[in-house]
Amino acid sequence: MLVGWRELVSLPDLGLFGIPAKIDTGARTSSLHARVVEDFLRDGERFVRFAVDWDGERHFCEAVHVDVRGITSSNGEAQTRFVIKTPLRIGSLTFRAEISLADRSQMQFPMLIGRTALRRRMVVDSGHSWLQSPAIAHKGRVRR
C-alpha cells in the first residue's frame, strides 16, 4: 500500500476515527497523544486506562498493555511509556500495531506511525499527503 507522509488513521477498538497521523520512518514505535490515568489488573491481565483528547471530546480508553518501555523521544529525551497493542486502520488496511502512549501536546500530529507498523505493509511517498484519506485528498496531493 502506498501512503503519504501524513494520513488519517483510526483505532476502531478504542472508538477513535479519522486521527491525523504523521507517517515517520525515522521513528521505530508508533505513538498516540494520551494521558495515562491508571494501570490495573483484570482477570490476571494488565490493562491501562488513558484519556485521549480528540475531536473536541475527551475519550477514556482501556487496552491491554503489553509493555512498559524506555523510548527516546524526538528531542532525544529518554521516557518510560506504556505500550498497547490494538487494531490500526489506514485506508482499507487494518492490522494490530504496538502504540506507545505519550504526551504529544507540543507536536503537530496527535499520532505518529513508526516504521515497525509500516514494515512489509506500506511504502511511504514523502512528496504526497492523504493518499489513503480520500475525504481530504484535495488538501495535499500535489508534489511540492
How would you sum up this structure, described in words?
The protein is mostly beta strands and 144 residues long. The chain is built from one helix and eleven strands. The protein has one helix at 115-118; strands at 2-4, 6-11, 16-23, 30-33, 35-42, 45-54, 57-72, 78-90, 93-102, 111-113, 123-125. It has a six-stranded mixed β-barrel with strand order 2-3-10-4-9-8. A two-stranded parallel sheet has the order 1-11. The radius of gyration is 15 Å and the shape is globular. The mean pLDDT is 90.
Tell me the span between the first and last alpha carbons. Answer: 22 Å
List the uncertain runs: none
Major sheet size, sense and barrel closure: 6 strands, mixed, barrel
Radius of gyration: 15 Å
Outline the fold blueprint.
Layout: E1 2-4, E2 6-11, E3 16-23, E4 30-33, E5 35-42, E6 45-54, E7 57-72, E8 78-90, E9 93-102, E10 111-113, H1 115-118, E11 123-125
Parallel strand pairs: 1-11, 3-10, 4-9
Antiparallel strand pairs: 2-3, 2-8, 4-10, 5-6, 6-7, 7-8, 8-9
Entry keywords:
144 residues; mainly beta; six-stranded mixed beta barrel; two-stranded parallel sheet; globular
Short summary of the structure?
The chain is an all-beta fold. Helix content is 3%, strand content 58%.
